[in-house]
């Protein structure tokens, strides 16, 4: 799999190794953006634009990893639901319900998705989304380098 396919295509399958590499890269990019914006070295609107721009590759990696687990991309919407529940204002509910809806359920969804995507192996053979996951080629050497 090419680097371009890894970040921008929603087709195919992605193994755990490349999923975790993306998660680390994504975390480092967000950390850098928020650090620069927090220190005034980067405009907040520019940082927000970069975060939005990172949503496409993050979604592509997530969907391909779901495909490796033989699940459709619509399962990725669980992450959106978890984020919306966590960001919501649940003050109209009693204290216990606020905690349940605003913290427990989103945490349960995220932990479940974390185990599903990052901990469990993909299907070993072909599934409805294609052949088994191929590793991402990060550095492609020219043939002259091997001679």
From TrEMBL:
Q: What GO cellular-component annotations does this UniProt entry give?
A: plasma membrane
Query: Does the record carry Membrane as a key word?
Result: yes
* TM regions (residue ranges): 20-38, 44-63, 75-92, 104-124
* Keywords of this entry: Membrane, Transmembrane, Transmembrane helix
Q: Which residues form a coiled coil?
A: none
> What Pfam families does the record tag this protein with?
DUF805 (PF05656)
UniProt-recorded name of the protein: Inner membrane protein
Query: Where does this protein come from, organism-wise?
Result: Erwinia tasmaniensis (strain DSM 17950 / CFBP 7177 / CIP 109463 / NCPPB 4357 / Et1/99)
| Lineage of the species this protein comes from | Bacteria, Pseudomonadati, Pseudomonadota, Gammaproteobacteria, Enterobacterales
């Amino acid at each position: 799999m090419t680097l371009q396919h890894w970040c921008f295509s929603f087709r195919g399958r992605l193994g755990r190794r490349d999923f975790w590499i993306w998660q680390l890269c994504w975390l480092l990019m967000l950390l850098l953006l928020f650090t620069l914006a927090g220190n005034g070295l980067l405009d907040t609107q520019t940082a927000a634009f970069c975060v939005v721009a990172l949503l496409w590759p993050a979604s592509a990696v997530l969907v391909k990893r779901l495909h490796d687990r033989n699940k459709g991309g619509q399962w990725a919407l669980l992450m959106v639901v978890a984020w919306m529940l966590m960001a919501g204002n649940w003050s109209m509910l009693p204290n216990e319900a606020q905690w349940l809806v605003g913290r427990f359920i989103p945490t349960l969804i995220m932990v479940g998705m974390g185990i599903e995507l990052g901990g469990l192996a993909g299907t070993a053979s072909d599934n409805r989304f294609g052949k088994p996951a191929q590793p991402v080629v990060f550095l492609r050497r020219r043939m002259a380098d091997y001679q």
